[in-house]
Each structure stands twice: as structure tokens, then as C-alpha cells.
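Review this:
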Amino acid sequence: MQELHDAPLAPLTTFRLGGPATRLITATTDAEVVAAVREADDTGTPLLLIGGGSNLVIGDKGFDGTALRIATTGFVLDGTRLELAAGEVWTDAVARSVEAGLAGIECLAGIPGSAGATPIQNVGAYGQEVSSTITEVVAYDRTARETVTLTNAECAFSYRHSRFKADPDRYVVLRVRFRLEDAEGLSAPIRYAETARVLGVGPGDRVPLAAARETVLGLRSGKGMVLDPEDHDTWSAGSFFTNPILNDEEFAAFHARVEDRLGAGTVPPAYPAGDGHTKTSAAWLIDKSGFTKGYGSGPARISTKHTLALTNRGEATTEDLLALAREVVAGVHEAFGITLVNEPVTVGVRL
């Protein structure tokens, strides 16, 4: 294990923000991860887990404790079964699964971060979520002080949520296991309307795996959602807010406010989200509240490519970012009565 003191954390995050950690440990094996976690627990030392750093907002004062960077490696393919070490780069894992001719995660191409983070957020995009292919998650249980294997059902997946996110201090993901599909070189059925339109197919159709992956990468790049060190629109956490899910009463009240603000007959985005619930678009809410692409005059601004991404233009602090986020939350609530919820995890700060 590598150990550093007073170590900068900003370079380990896609926002490139945040102060230093008292101590930074880089673990390259599961055993090293478990040993570092146990040491922190035994000594009562605060512990921060870092994978790809794509979902972290760290305060300017940094982290007073041990930051554990999980840099484990392992890509094991057995038929349609795939096992990834938590530290595997997710975009590389997707590319390798497509090269192997296996479907199920091809539309999750280009999402930054590590494999171990995917079950925590139940990462999803363009009509796919990891919960549809994950079979098991191997994790260290800090309460039981043992390594456990959780089935898909035991992970309690829901929209951008899981058992791991609900109890963030209990589990440390070590391995993620997937069951993919051999569809003779074709993708899983295309579920996302935008993807289907660009591919020139209907929803539910299948296309060559490589075509699905390349199309998603193109769509994400156009929205600044594929990491590029030269493009400040990608100095972000991707989508900063989750799409609100409203019950029938809440959606009716929201629809009425939309018509009051934007005119009778205006229909907001609406997607089925389970019995009696509807999901609407956070990006649409932000835009219609007056926060357009490129909004802001300081070092933290809304992306010039997508209203759902808040970005560091190069000289921002975490407080700059949070000030912008709070402005957006307040503006959307005033306009439509909906309170947006941040998707990235905050460390040492609150929205």
C-alpha cells in the first residue's frame, strides 16, 4: 500500500476540487482494502473511500482522516458471467464486454468512475441500469467485520439508490458480478428514445453492440459527459441532480404550476416510475427556471452543453460550486415547487 500525508484530493476527483486528506492510502488488492478499513475502524479514524472520484464533492478544508483510494484490478469473464474488481475503470470494462460480444451494459459507455461505485448509485443512463445485470456484490461489512456476498435482491436497488447508499458507512464494495447476454453480437433492446432515434431504429430493437456503444459515447460527448482534460464542461460530476419522482398528487400540483408559468397546454416531461409515480426531468426544470446552458459569471458555471452538469471552469473552489448549486435549487423550487436533490456525495460540506 502507498501512504501519503497531507495529500491533495482534488486531483482524484473529476471536479478537481477539495482540500487535502490528513492521510491518503492507495490499496491495490482486496486484502489491502480490508486491512485499511479495519485499521480505521479500530482506531476510530474517519474514513473516506475514493474510487474514480466522479461522484464526489469534497470541501475546501479537505478531509480530516484517512482517505482510501481503491485501485484494485480484475476483469474475469466466464461465459456470460463477468466479475469486476471495485477499482476497475468502468468505461474500460464496458468496452471490453462489448469486444467480447456481450450485451447488457453497452449503453453505460462513457460513464466516468470505477466499477465498485456502480452498484452504490445503481448507475444508469440511456435506458440501462446496472441493477438489471448485477447478480452479486462482494463487500466488506464493517458492522459484522467480515466479507459478505449480497444477491441482487439484497442490494435493494431502486432509482439511483441501493442498500449501500442507504447505509454508506457499513459496506465497502470489493467485487461486482454481472450476468450479461450473448445476443450474437447484438445489443440489448434499445430502450431510450434518443438513442433509438440516432440509430434509426424503433424502441425495443437491437443493433450491433459496437454501434450502440459508439452512439452513446457520441451523445454523451455532445453533452460534455465524457471526460476530457481540455474541456472544462467535463470538469464535473456529470448529472449533478437526480430526476424528481412525484406521486400523483405532487405531479398534478407541479403540472398546474407549469401551466401557470409557461402557459396553458404546456406539458412537462413525464415518464412512468412505478405505481402512482411519475418521473420528470431535472434538466428541463433547471432550463425552464432560467438557468440555461453556460449560466453563471464566476469560476463555477452550468455546462455550456447540458444544464444538468455544474462545472469547474478551472479556478473554482468547492464553495463556488455549492453557491451555484444552491442558487439552482432555490430557483427551481420557487418556479415549480420541486426541491432538487444532489446526486454526488458531499464530504465535509452540505448543499
